[in-house]
TrEMBL record:
Name of the molecule in the record: Transport permease protein
Annotated transmembrane regions: 33-60, 80-100, 121-147, 153-176, 188-206, 237-260
Protein family membership: Belongs to the ABC-2 integral membrane protein family.
Lineage: Bacteria, Bacillati, Actinomycetota, Actinomycetes, Streptosporangiales
Membrane topology qualifier: Multi-pass membrane protein
Gene Ontology CC annotation, any one: ATP-binding cassette (ABC) transporter complex
Location(s), subcellular: Cell membrane; Membrane
Biological process according to GO: response to antibiotic
Length: 269
């Protein structure tokens, strides 16, 4: 495992990774359908913010954070929707699109006929997923600042955290996609993603959950994403944010390496 990773690092070519990214840019320019998918993915978390964060928030009232600070409900929900936006952007690119290119269009097989290596394909696809994720989160941060849900300074602080969220879920998304047998398997992924969306401290503090469920939620990736992004977006800093960041970084790296190895085993035969 370690030998494989070191070999991949030594032979890694930024130009070949860039070629994989450029192929995706070319697909983006080929027609309006991809743009429609890209734009539509931004609106789901935004609509949740407007309907639940602001609409229901008027009925819920302020939220008291574990440290005793009191904030409006919309301020509590908005960073969570920002983390969800980063997750959704990365997963959309590294699940359905990645699976189609690997299993059906044979895009990766064609790329492997060139000097590009499996690790470079995985890294290029993950980099492109980060571009898509950053488009979602950048636009969402502008909305948050416009609505007064964060300040421009804290928005800039939260932006790198959203990239880390995209890295984590993009890496795992690729890894999962290499294991999928058909489109029906994505039903399980969608169900899991929706469960994370509901129960990761997105709409209420995890301290409100029963103790056993609180422990379970604290082990999930979206919880760490929400905690990291929320802490930076509202200026609630603490050492625990480093643990959240380390969790996400390890998750993304493991997913990237696993996906590259699966591409190697599946297509390089």
């Amino acid at each position: 495992m370690v030998t494989t990773m070191l070999a991949a690092r030594v032979s890694l070519s930024p130009s070949r990774v860039g070629a994989v990214i450029n192929r995706n840019v070319g697909a983006l320019r080929s027609g309006p359908s991809y743009w429609l998918v890209l734009v539509s993915g931004f609106f789901e978390p935004l609509l949740y913010l407007l309907s639940i964060g602001i609409g229901v928030g008027a009925l819920v009232g302020p939220i008291t954070l574990p440290g005793g600070r009191v904030i409006e409900y919309a301020e509590f929900v908005a960073p969570a929707m920002l983390a969800v936006s980063a997750m959704s952007g990365a997963l959309s690119e590294t699940t359905f699109n990645f699976f189609f290119k690997m299993k059906y269009s044979k895009t990766f097989e064609a790329i492997l006929a060139t000097p590009v290596k499996p690790f470079e394909i995985a890294l290029g696809e993950l980099s492109w997923a980060l571009v898509r994720s950053s488009v979602y989160t950048g636009a969402f941060l502008v909305v948050m600042v416009a609505l007064g849900l964060t300040s421009p300074g804290w928005a800039l602080a939260a932006l790198p955290a959203t990239l880390l969220v995209g890295l984590a879920f993009g890496g795992v998304g690729m890894a999962i996609s290499t294991l999928m047998r058909g489109w029906q398997d994505f039903d399980m992924l969608t169900t899991g993603q929706f469960a994370l969306f509901l129960f990761s401290g997105t709409f209420s503090p995890v301290q409100d959950y029963p103790p056993a469920m609180e422990v379970l939620v604290a082990a999930t990736p979206l919880f760490h994403a929400v905690e990291l992004v929320r802490g930076l977006a509202i200026g609630e800093l603490g050492w625990s944010l480093l643990g959240n960041a380390a969790y996400l970084l390890a998750m993304g790296a493991a997913g990237l390496v696993f996906a590259a190895r699966r591409i190697q085993r599946t297509l390089c035969v």
